[in-house]
Design goal:
GO molecular function: ATP binding; protein serine/threonine kinase activity
Largest sheet: 6 strands, mixed
Enzyme class: transferase
Structural class: alpha+beta
Shape: globular
Keywords: ATP-binding, Kinase, Nucleotide-binding, Plant defense, Serine/threonine-protein kinase, Transferase
Number of domains: 2
Family: Belongs to the protein kinase superfamily.
Number of helices: 12
Organism: Carex littledalei
CATH class of the largest domain: Mainly Alpha
Mean pLDDT: 80
Bound molecules: adenosine-5'-diphosphate, magnesium ion
Strand order of the largest sheet: 2-6-7-5-4-3
CATH superfamily of the largest domain: Transferase(Phosphotransferase) domain 1
Radius of gyration: 21 Å
Length: 422
């Protein structure tokens, strides 16, 4: 069975559909040092405050973080009102650490407004998980309170009252990339939009890596890439962000945290974290965009469970690439452009961190591709012959909504956090 040599994207099985019915809840996890390709997509723990203080060039106290002039401190009662008492019909997402609700605030005063009027916001309410949840929450307030960029989600404020920890973000109308790629019944994303999303996310990561005080994002994955109404991508969920190495250091040593399937092998094995670990995760997301499959999919068998292992033999090989391409694209992608993206993914997922490109180089390459002749759908688009190809309108050429065949098999529900490595 399957590697990409002998099986192209498998479609709907009863099992897949069944598993796909439950939305996966990726969560932050302590990754064990065992390099299991079949490990669960999941979790990690928060770096200790001491660790963070040691590595951040300008460590800040909790009081300093919370007094950021960019952020509003909300009363819990206001956020309860804004979300209609956290009613289930306001729920828009769920991650490892919390539920996310849609809410409404008055644009000027940031006080609760009538549902449907004023400004729409997303309110993340952390599950009451004690200290660790609090540390992640604080890390997110710390970074997003300081960093502003068109490709990072905007944090409007927070709430810390008793045991309640909440975050208030700008609302991203098109939700997460994960939902678009893997949710059953979702309209398939066109090739152009996939490229646009990759470029937006690459801009966000490049910004973090090239900042004066480098930031390593550490949890780059489809569920943390949010989309605005025009498919501009923004990174959210900064709970695991970490200050990069300073001086002539090549890495920071830290407890291994992240998500199986996305985390770089050297980081899992050694706890040595560098920006190149984010580049690896970016490569995995490129593979998800190419194939429409999850980084880890336990509904599949053998090598097909792990996207990197399954796709690797086909990446960089133009005769084999079509075997792993997302069938939901229905062949509507420029062949050369897809080859170029697969080559790029291949170097991003290189086993050797130093062989991976910098994010700024990845971004440059993607932008070239977006603008170049390689991004034009022309007569010969894919290896497969596609009838009725509408060359002029690549974005509309495959409008028929289809049931997504890729199972939504997050291993998280059965995941048990591993022992800390460091
Ligand atoms: N600002 C937002 N706008 C719209 N949807 C959001 C927003 N923030 C989060 N979500 C949805 O909630 C999910 C979980 O959010 P996330 O911040 O990643 O939580 P966690 O820290 O628990 O992983 C996202 O994958 C997305 O679907
Ligand atoms: Mg998340």
């Amino acid at each position: 069975m399957g590697n990409c040599m002998d099986s192209s994207s498998r479609v709907d099985s009863a099992l897949n559909s069944q598993i796909g019915a439950s939305q996966s809840k990726t969560s932050k996890t302590s990754l064990s040092s065992m390099p299991s390709s079949l490990g669960s997509a999941s979790t990690f723990t928060q770096p200790s405050y001491k660790e963070k203080s040691d590595t951040l060039p300008t460590p800040r106290t909790e009081g300093e973080i919370l007094s950021s002039p960019n952020l509003k401190a909300f009363a819990f009662s206001d956020l309860r009102t804004a979300t209609k008492n956290f009613r289930p019909d306001s729920l828009i997402g769920e991650g490892g650490f919390g539920h996310v609700y849609k809410g409404w605030l008055d644009e000027q005063t940031l006080t609760p407004s009538k549902p449907g009027s004023g400004m729409v916001v997303a309110v993340k309410r952390l599950k009451p998980e004690g200290f660790q949840g609090h540390k992640e929450w604080l890390t997110e307030v710390d970074y997003l309170g300081q960093l502003q960029h068109p490709n990072l989600v905007k944090l409007i404020g927070y709430c810390s009252e008793g045991d309640n920890r909440l975050l208030v973000y700008e609302f991203m109308p098109k939700g997460s990339l994960e939902n678009h790629l893997f949710r059953r019944g979702a309209q398939p994303l066109s090739w152009q939009i996939r490229l646009k999303v990759a470029i937006g996310a690459a801009k966000g990561l490049s910004f973090l890596h090239d900042a004066e005080s480098q930031v390593i994002y550490r949890d780059f994955k489809a569920s943390n890439i949010l989309l605005d109404s025009d498919y501009n991508a923004k990174l959210s969920d900064f709970g695991l962000a970490k200050a990069g190495p300073t001086g002539d250091k090549t890495h920071v040593s830290t407890q291994v945290m992240g998500t199986h399937g996305y985390a770089a092998p050297e980081y899992i094995a050694t706890g040595r974290l560098s920006a190149k670990a984010d580049v690896y995760s970016f490569g995995v997301v490129l593979l998800e965009l190419l194939t429409g499959r999850r980084a880890l999919d336990r509904s599949k068998v053998g090598i097909e469970q792990n996207l990197v292992d399954w796709t690797k033999p086909c990446l960089g090989d133009k005769r084999k690439l079509y075997r792993i391409m997302d069938s939901r694209l229905e062949g509507q992608y420029p062949k050369k452009g897809a080859q170029a993206v697969s080559n790029l993914a291949l170097i991003c997922i290189s086993g050797e961190a130093k062989s991976r490109p910098k994010m700024s180089d990845v971004l440059e390459k993607l932008e070239q591709l977006y603008d170049s002749k390689y991004n034009v759908l022309n007569q010969e688009i894919s290896n497969r012959k596609v009838p009725n190809l509408v060359a002029k309108s690549p974005l509309r050429a495959h409008a028929s909504p289809r049931r997504h065949s890729t199972a939504n098999a997050s291993p998280l529900p059965t995941y048990r956090p591993a022992a800390k490595v460091h």
